[in-house]
Amino acid sequence: MKSFLIVVIAVASAGFAGQEREVPKDSVRISVPGCARGRLFIVGPRAEHEPGRSDVPPGKRFRLQGPREILDEIGTHEESMVMLTGLVRKSDMTPPGVNLGGGVRVSPGAMPGSSPGRNSTFDTAIFDVESWQPRPESCPAK
Description:
7 strands, CATH 2.40.50, alpha+beta, two-stranded antiparallel ribbon
């Protein structure tokens, strides 16, 4: 009976130890600094010593989704930069268009009457937020 109890406790504690969820095959877990404006997140510059993905360019836009409590907490820090960690689809990490090689990529133009400056959904990927941390830097004025 004693060994059964030990096995039950070990199995139960193993479930609590692995709180980080598994990354789906079509996604990648990233950590990026930036500024949140409501449910929109704009990637900011990364310091060289920071961990995470350096291939996410500053200015890349993400639409935030995740637990409401976390998104509400992030929303209270709109004037400060935050570091977000979460899941993004791999297909959203590649620039749009066709790679012709040699650093040349051809992508379709914007629809008539739209531009990245006026349309916040232009090239916006989904960022499924798992956690966040405040950063000391301030966000640019709105």
